[in-house]
Design a protein that fits this description.
The chain is α/β, with parallel strands linked by helices.
């Protein structure tokens, strides 16, 4: 319980500040949103799977060629017909294209009419007419030309007819391009002569079927409308007699003309208006106008009745006032000039003063006259408004009485108007049908008749090759996408960020020719340069610089975490900082062997109180670097590492050393690394390049995050740029790693 409390306390303190992983996750999301489609990443993905993509394209093209060679040639013959929405002019009127439908009178209706005609072209009824016209039912030549087998087992005539119709509908194609009236009737068959014959017959039968429908519908419609016309005439006569009788009985006088006043609320177009209602509307309109005039006059009067007269715009706009004000200004100017030269009792000064006083009296008199005129206009407007409103009120009573009587009148008038409209429309329709009866002019004409096609319409090699390329492209995208999604191996530096979503701290190259410890002894080696770069990243990994305590771990064994721990420790020690490297892998310790020490005492001895910290610390050959081995392997390493003594030891050592590095066991399968990650300031995840893991890396990240680890980032180890970068990445080239120090030569 004490250990859990200590871990929770440390995790809570770190939770107050965003971790580098959280900060990097936010920035990565923003960059992904801003970057959008990455052409470079797509190019690298295609280059990595070039052989697979080439194989898929080759297989698709080969399949297209084989299918083309195996297909039987087919020929398509096409007949073009023009479809008008009305037939030719007859007796000065336009005869209907189809008497069963209303003639299209707008662009939308015309488009609907053409679509309907296209459906008729492709209908089963036309196919049936063609089959009977050419005797195709049970005809062996027809089945041979279509590449079909005749039905066996003594089929009935109905079955043979259905079989022929299905074959015709499948091989026929009627199309109508947008914004045109030219429809194409195409028929495809193995025999070119047969294809042309059926296409021409199809167009002919379509025209005959259209004429037959017009004739049948015209004859039926004429008889039907004649009966409806007689009934409508009887209803119209009765409704008009009833309307006239009611108007006489109640003394109503109605007029058909609409009220000419603007904005007047009259009845609908042909609804009659009474004399009383018309007079009321006229007086009401005049009263409204008078009220508006009174409001304007009242506003003018209020403007001049308050305050100084000369401050009113109505007074100032008067021409007489303007002239007097101008004259007074001139006299005042002359008066001021005379006063500058003479005293007030001088004759010219006295004369000018008298003139100014006279002008002031004139201005005042004219202003009062203007105000009086405005007052008179206002009084006249009020009187006119009151008189008109009184007349409107007197007519309202008469109008209300008349409205009560008009209810029944309006019902009868509406019924009469409805019957009249119905009668007139039926009469007009009957006249049109009578004039058009017997006329056989068609609104459909054949523009181009089908001829025997010379070139086959299918198969087309170029088309099939294009379809093969398209299929190859789609299949390549699917295969590469699935392969990319299922592949969780980290091969290149970009995968650290793209697949794991953690910062990349450094890339450590493969050293096949020398041991890592030997390569680290050479400061000019590629391995030393790579770890120096990793050390620089750690110095900038947090706001406070290098963390005080650092855990180095990996998801699986043998990924280079111990070498990375040692390299970081040596690199930081070279900067003059005191560093302690602790081997906390109590199952497979390796630090003591790397430095050539025995493992008789170490971390386990300190945690079990067998030795003190000073007794197990060992100085290395490197300045400022000390090592604490794991010590004897205990029966239960997890219990020791999760004890309160371990948490206290890490805290004490962090106060004595500038940096404490914990070489941890792998994350998966063990609880050591997640427990220790909550005790340190930062965690580095070591990832071996080009190693398949089956999701172990993401599982390791989840375990570390569940332990509230402050994950600083990942280090990619054993990266071979010669093997991988040319196919997958342009992050680092081999030339970068092969860069060597050289002295400048003179000469």
């Amino acid at each position: 319980m004490a250990v859990q409390h200590e871990q929770t306390k440390l995790a809570g303190e770190r939770a107050l500040v965003p971790t580098p992983l959280e900060q990097y996750g936010e920035s990565l999301t923003y960059e992904e949103q801003e970057q959008g489609f990455d052409l470079r990443a797509l190019f690298l993905l295609v280059r990595a799977n070039a052989a697979l993509i080439a194989a898929i394209f080759a297989a698709s093209l080969a399949a297209a060629i084989v299918v083309t060679l195996l297909m039987t040639p087919q020929f398509t013959a096409t007949t073009t017909v023009q479809i008008n929405d009305q037939a030719s002019q007859v007796l000065g009127k336009a005869a209907d294209a189809d008497t069963s439908e209303a003639q299209a009178s707008s662009a939308q209706e015309a488009e609907r009419f053409l679509e309907t005609q296209l459906e008729i072209i492709n209908s089963r009824a036309i196919a049936q007419r063609v089959a009977h016209r050419l005797n195709l039912i049970g005809n062996p030549a027809f089945y041979k030309a279509m590449g079909k087998r005749m039905p066996t087992d003594n089929p009935s005539h109905r079955e043979l007819e259905e079989s022929a119709i299905k074959i015709l509908l499948k091989a026929e194609s009627g199309t109508l391009p947008h914004n045109t009236r030219l429809a194409s009737i195409a028929f495809t068959a193995h025999d070119p002569n047969f294809a042309a014959k059926i296409a021409n017959t199809w167009a002919s039968e379509y025209i005959q079927a259209n004429l037959q429908r017009r004739y049948d519908s015209s004859d039926y419609a004429r008889e039907f409308i004649q009966g409806q016309l007689n009934d409508a005439k009887v209803k119209l006569e009765k409704s008009e007699r009833d309307l006239n009788a009611y108007a006489r009985s109640v003394g109503l006088i109605k007029m058909r003309e609409a009220n000419p006043l603007p904005n007047s609320e009259t009845g609908e177009g042909s609804v009659p208006n009474s004399v009383t209602a018309s007079s009321l509307l006229q007086l009401n309109y005049a009263a409204n106008q008078a009220e508006q005039a009174r409001i304007v006059a009242e506003q003018r009067w209020q403007a001049v009745s308050k305050g100084d007269l000369l401050s009113s715009p109505e007074v100032l706009s008067n021409s007489a006032i303007s002239d007097l004000l101008a004259e007074r200004a001139r006299n005042i100017g002359e008066l001021e000039r005379e006063r500058a030269r003479h005293t007030d009792d001088f004759p010219t000064v006295a004369q000018l003063k008298a003139q100014v006083d006279t002008i002031n009296h004139q201005i005042d008199a004219v202003a009062r006259n203007v105000r009086q005129s405005i007052k008179q206009q206002y009084d006249a407007a009020v009187e006119t408004e009151n008189r008109l409103k009184a007349q409107v009120a007197s007519l309202k009573g008469s109008s209300l009485t008349e409205q009560d009587r008009s209810v029944q009148y309006n019902l009868l008038a509406r019924d009469a108007d409805t019957n009249r409209s119905l009668y007139e429309s039926l009469l007009q329709r009957y006249k049109e049908l009578t004039a058009a009866s017997g006329i056989s002019a068609s609104n459909i004409a054949i523009i181009d008749s089908a001829e025997d096609p010379i070139e086959p319409s299918s198969p087309l090699l170029l088309l099939n090759l294009g379809l093969g390329l398209l299929a190859g492209l789609i299949l390549s995208v699917l295969v590469v996408t699935v392969r990319q999604q299922l592949d969780d191996a980290v091969r290149i530096p970009e995968d650290i960020e793209a697949k794991l979503h953690i910062p990349l701290l450094g890339v450590i190259p493969m050293t096949d020719d020398v041991l890592p410890a030997t390569a680290l002894d050479d400061p000019k080696s590629m391995l030393s340069e790579a770890y120096n770069s990793l050390r620089s990243s750690l110095l900038l990994s947090s706001a406070n610089g290098l963390p005080k305590t650092l855990l180095v771990t990996s998801s699986q064994p043998a990924e280079g975490k111990s070498t990375t721990s040692m390299a970081i420790a040596r690199g930081v020690a070279k900067l003059g900082r005191t560093v302690l490297l602790i081997d906390v892998d109590m199952r497979r310790p390796s630090v003591h062997a790397t430095f050539g020490y025995d493992n008789k005492k170490g971390l386990s001895s300190v945690l079990t109180a067998q030795h003190s910290v000073e007794a197990v610390l060992q100085q290395t050959v490197h300045d400022n670097l000390m090592v604490m081995s794991s010590g004897p392997i205990p029966p239960s390493p997890t219990d020791l590492l999760s004890s309160i003594a371990m948490a206290q030891l890490v805290r004490d050592l962090s106060s004595r050393f500038d940096l404490v590095i914990l070489d941890s066991p792998p994350v998966l399968g063990l609880a050591d690394a997640p427990i220790l990650s909550s005790l340190v300031d930062g965690v580095i995840l070591v990832v071996q390049a080009d190693r398949s893991r089956g999701g172990s890396l993401k599982a390791s990240l989840r375990r570390l995050q569940d332990g509230h680890a402050n994950l600083l980032g990942g280090a990619l180890t054993m990266f071979d740029p010669k093997k991988i970068s040319n196919r997958y990445s342009e992050y680092y080239g081999y030339a970068y790693y092969s860069y060597q120090y050289s002295e400048a030569k003179e000469g």
